[in-house]
arginine--tRNA ligase (Streptomyces violaceoruber), 363 residues
Amino acid sequence: MTPADLSRTVLHAVRRAVDEDALHAPVPPRVRVERTRPGGSGDYACAVALQLAGPAALPALEVARILRDRVAAEPGVGRVEITGPGFLSFTLAAPAESDRAVLTAVREQGLAYGHGDALRDRILQFHHAREVRAAVTAHAVRRLVLAQGARVRTSCEAEPDPDWARLGVTVDAYGTPPAPLTGIRPVPAGATAAELLERLGPDAARWGLLRAAGHDRAALGPDLLVQGEANPLFRVRYAHARARALTRGAAALGFTAETPARGEDPAAHLAHHPAARPLLDLIADHPAVLLAGARHRAPDRVARQLEAVAHAFFDFHDACPPLPAGDEKPSAAHRSRLALAEAAGTVLAGGLSLLGIRAPEHL
């Protein structure tokens, strides 16, 4: 967990306390956490309880107690202490504990892993030109901000192209808005929806339109249809399909995935394995990437995240086969590896879904 992750975790705890009427104070826009000073306890410290004590009309120690239990229950946090007049001190979970919490969160939340409520107080209105890349980008941004709890409405400058529906695009209204709205203005595609659908089909067309940053020209050539590792879309979808195949293969061998049990040696499983670490870190970072993609109206960030997850998945898969070979019996290590592979597949499927792209079980 990074300082930015911890800051969001504490802010989420404040929101929960306010929602549950345990705390009556305005939710600050952000919470600052700092490395604990020499002689202090824990890894990080935060003065948010002192900041909220006045508005909440409570002693800072009472505010700190209200927040402590809520933060301590979050994945990645090992211990929360109250020090001094009401400072919160955080000790982060050990790698194995943190990894177990991430894999459990993916398993429990499924395709909604990484969704949240950070934008739940926002009412957003997007407006775009009658152009296919602007329409697809606005639609993807809409899905991203909805996944973070916002309410959103999209409109187009003119009546939508009927072919946009074949790309999954919907528009709430069209015409000149009564007031300036947030514009979605990527570099135009240089082709119509009908042309892209004829050449590429809906999935490759959407990937090509969304993969590049909005200020860059979209790559919409035949490489998007290549069934090979050089094509990032194929690699992402193949990684997902391979993860699903591993689940089927494990079932045929009579075992299922599970995270390492408490007390087991993490060295025998995932926490310190050099091939597992990058994939675990990317999966842990996925919620922050989705939130950043929503905040910055940047679905390209999600696409690049999925490419990174797919790359790390194959590196892990080759170095740590999740299925036993030959007469080898399934072990706790195999179950842990399978849990990580399945989490990667879930992240890939959820990310593709937010981009409006299918994630086939077989390729």
Notes: The first helix runs from residue 3 to 19.
